[in-house]
Amino acid sequence: MKIYPLYDGTQHKLPKIEEDKRGNAGLYFTRFYGEYNARQLAGDTDKSNTDHKTNFLENFVRKIGNDKELKNYEYRQQFLIKAQGGQSRIYTLDNCHLVTGMGNEHIVENGFLWHYTLGVPYLSGSQLKGLLRSTIEQYLDINADEKVRLLRQWFGSDHKDTKKQTLANQCGELIFFDALPIEKPELTIDIMTPHMGKWYAEGNNIEGIDDAERLPADWHDPTPIPFLAVKSASFLISISKRAGSDINLDQVWTLFDSALSELGVGAKTRTGYGYLRYEESKTQEKYKDYIKKKDEQQKKAEKIEIERQKQTEFNKLLMNASPFHKEVLQAAQTENWKEDREALGRSIKTWVDKLQTHPSEKESINFILNLAHKHYETQMKAPHKIKKEAQREWVTTLLNLADQKP
């Protein structure tokens, strides 16, 4: 990621983010607004300042993030969730946009929720938990006592307001995870045009009927306010339950499906934002992908364990070996004599010559002899038939060394 000076003379102007760069878009959005001017700092909200905000937001009108990093995060989360007995589903924006984190403070007036390290928009676990709880409280048509029991078991309390709780709090048995995109999400700029901004912001401070700026009326001009929104994305939503819980996750998903498709998540749901549909086929594909990845990880772990055991056994051999035999063992391991016939063939004559000056090293003689029988079985059985003189020489010498008594 490039480093830019914060100021250049009296200007605070940053170049636009280039597409496909690995810089964190969330960090850029949060810390590097580059459209300041004196009128804006003074609180002026005229159209020119709206244009400045739009210019800044245009940096993010593209696909955001890094597919490889998102994939790695997805795998890590999946392994954690499956280990806890949890489940995941994929939900896709249903012909609408999504706004998340709009209440976060920002100079463009409307914030945005970015993942700190991956630099992509996401749905926090607390958002999803709140959505599910509100769905149960307001829309689930069941017996009141059963609803209280459900709320307390799933979320830990029978009411969000502590003053209205009738039962003691406990640890909620459902665990909600942050929902991140499974691939790079596409962002866009949307516009809201409040006609009576002063009324919405300062309506409680109206001084009288002459307070024309604050009174709600038709003489006010609309003020366009640009804000970032997710144009297209698919999110991996995951839940699990605490050990020993008897919660039926199918019941949880049924409520989640209804909440996300009928109520929406994030901001501006009443104006059509934030509706998600369950992607069953994609979820099944992801599960198969997870199983494949899990098998790969398992095989990798098994291979590492086998290599560790081999190394442990090899270290034990070295501890009990003579200095000469240590050299033989280390050469055999480094050059992979047990598996590589050509590697053994390149070195065996040299070591047989060394053995002639160390005839008492029976352990080394037998070690090399066994490897020779493995890779040169025919030659070892009938050395007189070997046509290559050099090969016939080391085979004969090795056999003679093996026959010598200590």
Automatic annotation (TrEMBL):
Keywords: Antiviral defense. The keyword Oxidoreductase does not apply. GO terms for biological process: defense response to virus. Residues 98-277 form the CRISPR type III-associated protein domain. It comes from the Bacteria. The keyword GTP-binding does not apply. NCBIfam families: cas_TM1791_cmr6 (TIGR01898). This is CRISPR type III-B/RAMP module RAMP protein Cmr6.
